[in-house]
């Protein structure tokens, strides 16, 4: 069992930067590929980024590539989502998720989910 807790979401102006964190419980964090997803009001959940167990593979949605970056620190059981050049359309609840094996872009393949942190980008 893995429990995930996101933090770092807040109100930010367009063009600004923000770093989200997701910290996992337990001592087996490195067993899991980690994903970031987001869901805006009235919209479906969408993939944002994912990272492999030791960070060697990273995946990004086209909409965030070049602006967002994900990384992890297995010693701290934490995965990060660094967001830059934020746009109002980035406004959403951001969720981290964990799965064994390789990172993927499909949410239903992730086993564990956090409760989310809210990011609001004002224009």
Question: Would you kindly provide a brief summary of this structure?
Answer:
The chain is mostly beta strands. It is 0% helix and 49% strand. The model has no long low-confidence stretch (mean pLDDT 97).
The percentage helix is under 10%
- Rg (CA only): 13 Å
Supply the helix-strand structural class.
mainly beta
Number of helices: 0
State the end-to-end CA separation. 40 Å
What spatial form do the alpha-carbon principal axes imply?
globular
Order of helices and strands: EEEEEEEEEEE
According to DSSP, the number of beta strands is 11
How is the biggest beta sheet arranged? 7 strands, mixed
Show unreliable segments.
none
Proportion of beta-strand residues: over 45%
Query: What's the pLDDT, averaged over the residues?
Result: 97
Note the topology:
Elements: E1 4-7, E2 11-13, E3 18-24, E4 32-39, E5 46-51, E6 58-60, E7 68-73, E8 78-83, E9 92-100, E10 112-113, E11 117-122
Parallel strand pairs: 2-11
Antiparallel strand pairs: 1-3, 3-8, 4-5, 4-9, 5-6, 7-8, 9-10, 9-11
Description:
There is one protein chain. The chain is mainly β and 123 residues long. It contains no helices and 11 strands. The strands form 2 sheets. Strands 2, 4, 5, 6, 9, 10 and 11 form a 7-stranded mixed beta sheet that branches. A hairpin with a 6-residue loop joins β5 (46-51) and β6 (58-60).
Keywords:
123 residues, mainly beta, four-stranded antiparallel sheet, 0% helix
């Amino acid at each position: 069992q893995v429990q995930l807790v996101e933090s770092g979401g807040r109100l930010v102006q367009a063009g600004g930067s923000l770093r989200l964190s997701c910290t996992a419980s337990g001592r087996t964090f490195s067993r899991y590929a980690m994903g970031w997803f987001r869901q805006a009001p009235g919209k479906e959940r969408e993939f944002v980024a994912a990272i492999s167990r030791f960070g060697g593979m990273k995946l990004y949605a086209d909409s965030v590539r070049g602006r967002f970056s994900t990384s992890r620190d297995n010693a701290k059981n934490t995965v990060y989502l660094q967001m830059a050049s934020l746009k109002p359309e980035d406004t959403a609840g951001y969720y981290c998720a964990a799965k064994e094996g390789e990172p993927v872009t499909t949410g239903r393949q992730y086993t564990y989910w956090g409760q989310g942190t809210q990011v609001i980008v004002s224009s």
